[in-house]
Amino acid sequence: MEARWRSSAKPVQAPKTTKTVSFEEVSGKASSSEALPLSLHLTNAVFFSLFFSVVYFLLSRWREKIRTSTPLHLVNLSEIVAIFAFIASFVYLLGFFGIDFVHSLILRPSTDLWNSEDEEENEALLRKEDARKIPCDQALDCSVTSAPIISAQKVVDEKPVKLTTEEDEEIIKAIVAGTTPSYSLESKLGDCKRAASIRREALGRITGKSLSGLPLDGFDYESILGQCCEMPIGYVQIPVGIAGPLLLNGKEYSVPMATTEGCLVASTNRGCKAIHLSGGASSVLLKDGMTRAPVVRFGTAKRAVDLKFYLEDPENFETLAVVFNRSSRFARLQGIKCVIAGKNLYLRFTCSTGDAMGMNMVSKGVQNVLDFLQTDFPDMDVIGISGNLCSDKKPAAVNWIEGRGKSVVCEAIINGDVVRKVLKTSVESLVELNMLKNLTGSAMAGALGGFNAHASNIVSAVYIATGQDPAQNIESSHCITMMEAVNEGNDLHISVTMPSIEVGTVGGGTQLASQSACLNLLGVKGASQESPGANSRRLATIVAGAVLAGELSLMSALAAGQLVKTQMKYNRSSKDVSKTS
Ligand code: ADP
């Protein structure tokens, strides 16, 4: 069976007797004829011609009989043949074109917006939804001309929809019946696109839900195999906007941001403009070290402390660094921080990882060291390679204080005129708002690294565009925004300090086509040829620069009261103001 599945890379053919119907067809969105082979088109044409010819013949004979008062039931041979031809062609045409219609009445899921028969109604609904998003809550010039909305459904419908082959149909049935696991499709078929297509079809039948808004075509499924996503059934489209140029350390960057939050890009763009007009921002990398912290247990607290002291001895560290660094030519152990909890010991390893974000790399190095330590500490019980002191994808003070990944500080002096003309506020208002909101307000809220207005908005959008791990936006968005009046109170000094920016330009999602294009736009695609790690470090400074722009713009909108004013003016926004800050 497996070999047979693999070999079926031949063109799709529609079986004549047991015509298979794809889920898209069942939900009434695809014309079955689009993917038919030529012979079937010819058969259809013959039966169509036959049907209309005999209908014409019989009607003319009927008319003749009425005219000559001949009884209708008296039929000659040619009429008998014509009646048979009529019945045969009628049955064929009903069988071929009528099945879809009957199925669509019986099987169509009714609750899904995308499944509504009336596409125009859907689009009107969407337009209404969209209208509520205007204006944007950041009070920028985001006037949206009512461009026609092309629904995802429509985009998908424009593509030819293939009928499933008999073999595919067999596999789909096996998945629906639970006899073939869906996850095994890629290895069994050796064709990732076909596997995704079959899985999707089976899922549609199992759930009875339409997936027609989720595109399948236009994606390289081989590129994610074993690396980025398991059991794919399609991909989600996220628009990418561009903010900039961001003038940072004397260079201009066009910053790609993947987001569905209206005005986020526009707001960041305005911040970039203010920075540019003021001579640019500068950004400095303070530290570069990814962490992993296994937890090990001993029989007594004393034994745990023995290992702590052993690891803290500089001579031992040298040996361990050699063992650790064997894991990769880019991994370089920087330190091990030991924390005791009773008889348990947490070892927070920090290492540089070149242009990779580094989680895999550091984990491999840690495993090497644990294996090595087992010789001298055979009573050490490794409970887990990650003991949460790392701390990955969870809010934790250790990252805020010690840093994780790249620690960056970025600053700019914004000219007073620019504050007034571009940002429509004053230096004094900004400084006061920053003190009361980002510092005092966040302190009152017990914030952990959240001393900013919306750093995570920018971090997430840039992360998604450039193939970073979006879950790491939790610690990567740790940021304190500072503002101060300088030059006798005329200008604004603004800075963002971000201790845990976790980014890479190789590995993970960074090599996928669209994410790689965004990295290329920033000039940081792949491994740096001059100096390993230079690309990922530069990306971290760009993230901080974009955050600086975003902070500047949103804080200005708040200081100028634009946010509330715009809300009041249109009084239609469904958005919660608090969500933007
Ligand atoms: P991560 O550790 O971020 O999960 P991966 O392990 O997926 O990253 O990718 C890192 C891989 O890329 C390693 O195998 C490493 O040898 C390779 N690599 C090639 N060039 C570089 C570079 N300049 N910096 C870091 N890793 C690199």
Automatic annotation (TrEMBL):
InterPro entries from the UniProt entry = HMG_CoA_Rdtase, HMG_CoA_Rdtase_cat_sf, HMG_CoA_Rdtase_CS, HMG_CoA_Rdtase_eu_arc, HMG_CoA_Rdtase_N, HMG_CoA_Rdtase_NAD(P)-bd_sf, HMG_CoA_Rdtase_sub-bd_dom_sf
Keywords in alphabetical order, please.
Endoplasmic reticulum, Glycoprotein, Isoprene biosynthesis, Membrane, NADP, Oxidoreductase, Transmembrane, Transmembrane helix
GO MF terms held by the record = hydroxymethylglutaryl-CoA reductase (NADPH) activity
Q: Catalyses which reaction?
A: (R)-mevalonate + 2 NADP(+) + CoA = (3S)-3-hydroxy-3-methylglutaryl-CoA + 2 NADPH + 2 H(+)
Q: Which domain of life is it from?
A: Eukaryota
One of this protein's GO BP terms? sterol biosynthetic process
Question: Where would you find the membrane-spanning parts of this chain?
Answer: 38-59, 80-99
Q: What is its EC number?
A: 1.1.1.34
- UniProt pathway annotation: Metabolic intermediate biosynthesis; (R)-mevalonate biosynthesis; (R)-mevalonate from acetyl-CoA: step 3/3
The answer to keyword Transmembrane applying to this record is: yes
**Bilayer topology term:** Multi-pass membrane protein
- Give any Gene Ontology cellular component: peroxisomal membrane
Q: Name the PROSITE patterns for this protein.
A: HMG_COA_REDUCTASE_1 (PS00066), HMG_COA_REDUCTASE_2 (PS00318), HMG_COA_REDUCTASE_4 (PS50065)
- Localization per record: Endoplasmic reticulum membrane
Question: What protein family is recorded?
Answer: Belongs to the HMG-CoA reductase family.
What NCBIfam families does the annotation carry?
HMG_CoA_R_NADP
Q: What name does UniProt use for this protein?
A: 3-hydroxy-3-methylglutaryl coenzyme A reductase
Native source species = Gossypium darwinii (Darwin's cotton)
